[in-house]
Amino acid sequence: MTTEDLRELDRAAVLATVKTAELVTPDLLGRPTPCAAWTVGELLAHMAAQHRGFAAAARGDGADLALWHPRPPGPQTGEEYAESADAVLAAFAPDDVPQRLFAMPEFGAGVTVPGHQAIGFHLVDYVVHGWDLARAVGQDYELDPACAEPVLRIVGQIPDGPERDSPESPFAHALPDPGTGSALDRILCMLGRSPNWPDRH
């Protein structure tokens, strides 16, 4: 799996979330999501902020943590989400992006990671948050089969430690393997999501 492949998969995952976000009307912004602490509006605001932060990091100016902070959700959130998605896809497009260093201030002051690794993080986020958003607004979500192996590999490297206890953590502690044979179900459980949400909440 090359870094270019990851960018193609990331682009597809992001564009799928844009299609779902287009279905979010103002009356849906207050709905609960599988991210227990976030409503639909707060989830979309978080997703937009991450796009803006990753886009800044790809351009070499992502070290300012303020760039990663979400804006208050409201009727404008859907439009802001679409704009942020366009921005990150454009920022990831140059050929040398996988070789650049990305500042990741959410991991700590001065922390940088290789671009190809940052793109992998972004891919995981938008597969999982894509499912979160779709489930919250009553839409189906299908994992691109090409995403299964790389996302499972990356998710398997994410620590399941005390950092997941933080209210700011997008991932809860892992749940037991559901035994369904579904790659998406395994990914969700490894990141603390019940594939049956909201049936078990």
UniProtKB/TrEMBL annotation:
Disordered: region residues: 158-177
Entry-linked NCBIfam families: maleylpyruvate isomerase family mycothiol-dependent enzyme, TIGR03086 family metal-binding protein
All residue ranges annotated as the Mycothiol-dependent maleylpyruvate isomerase metal-binding domain in the record: 17-134
InterPro entries found in the cross-reference section: CHP03086, DinB/YfiT-like, Maleyloyr_isom, MDMPI_metal-binding
Annotated organism of origin: Nocardia flavorosea
Protein name: TIGR03086 family protein
Gene Ontology MF, one: metal ion binding
Pfam families referenced in this protein's UniProt entry, alphabetically: MDMPI_N
